[in-house]
């Protein structure tokens, strides 16, 4: 919602008299009210029946209380229109969610589809726990030897002949392919 500027206190007209007529001289407050009502009517696409515009004589005849109530009423109309648009958006989104929920399978249907899988889980867990460890494969199987990273450190000539330090073998229960 837009912030309203403060209403001027003075009764001095901001409009320079350009013609001699019987039209009353309007204050800044009255001009502000006229513009605010016109903008509200245009923004909300109201008809003249829904929100009539004030003519100069009606504006000049507004009491101090009415000069406060008219902008407040227009602000309330703007807020109400904004809330109505948001409510329409939420209603549309709720309808989309409800349509999506109706296309989802129900719990009994899901249980029926998953029942064979659920029944095979104990057998599957026994087979997995009794299976031998998988064979070791290089990290880049199928690629050239220059792209492969060895899982064990390379053996140099001086190490193989006993000239260098040797690391002790791994005392682990994991297969060699898991030791890096």
Describe the model.
The structure is a single chain. This protein has 180 residues and is mostly helical. The chain has helices spanning 28-44, 56-60, 64-103, 107-130, 157-160. The protein has a domain at 28-103. Helix 1 (28-44) packs parallel to helix 3.
Gyration radius from CA atoms, angstroms: 42 Å
The first-to-last residue Cα distance is 64 Å
The helix-strand sequence is HHHHH
Unreliable segments (pLDDT under 50, ≥5 consecutive)? 7-20
Total helical elements: 5
Largest sheet: none
Strand content: under 5%
- The overall average pLDDT, rounded, is 74
Broad structural category: mainly alpha
Helix content: 40-55%
Number of E-state strands: 0
Dominant shape: rod-shaped
Task: For this entry, give a set of tags.
180 residues, mainly alpha, 5 helices, 0% strand, rod-shaped
Layout of helices and strands:
Layout: H1 28-44, H2 56-60, H3 64-103, H4 107-130, H5 157-160
Helix pairs in contact: 1-3
Task: Write a short abstract of this structure.
The chain is mostly helical and 180 residues long.
